[in-house]
């Protein structure tokens, strides 16, 4: 999981979303869910609103339209962070929309929306907060550990350590290691093209959270703990080079 910068919604979409929200608001409370769901799935609204929303979310997402929960590049759904079934009044709220893969959205998260004792969401919204304040990524095993109640709840609800994800993150880690070495060789030879290809490969691959976690850990006092197993000092030292960090940090 990685921080995402939300873009501003175009005026035309703002107006259309507001119109639909007003329709849901005017309905009787017991009718709002069915109405909101029907409007969201209606062919006209899919064309006029949902498809443009998905396109904007794809522009916001890192890598190749990666899921904003697991960071795999399988994203096809507009997820309602606060589920439609929980709060139909937020169905068309741009601040409530994230890009998600079908597995995260439908097979895991669904309508689950845990709250803490104060009634605040126990799920991480990557457009509002830094996931790394709540989650720690083990570079050796590719698995996340929850650092806070919010991190642990997000880990469980979204299934962030499910099935093939840890192995895929280890693969992303190895790609980072190979690419930073290639970047350094290009730098030594003055080959700017090779340097640019190495940076682009890291930035465009799935699981952008892995590279960002490695970059953050590299400059912390206990960096060698995170990089301890078999990444070696070379990768760690390269990830500390200001020029490379400026090209990769999000």
Automatic annotation (TrEMBL):
Tree of life domain: Bacteria
Segments forming domain HNH nuclease: 52-106
Protein name: HNH nuclease domain-containing protein
Species in which this protein is naturally found: Streptomyces asiaticus subsp. ignotus
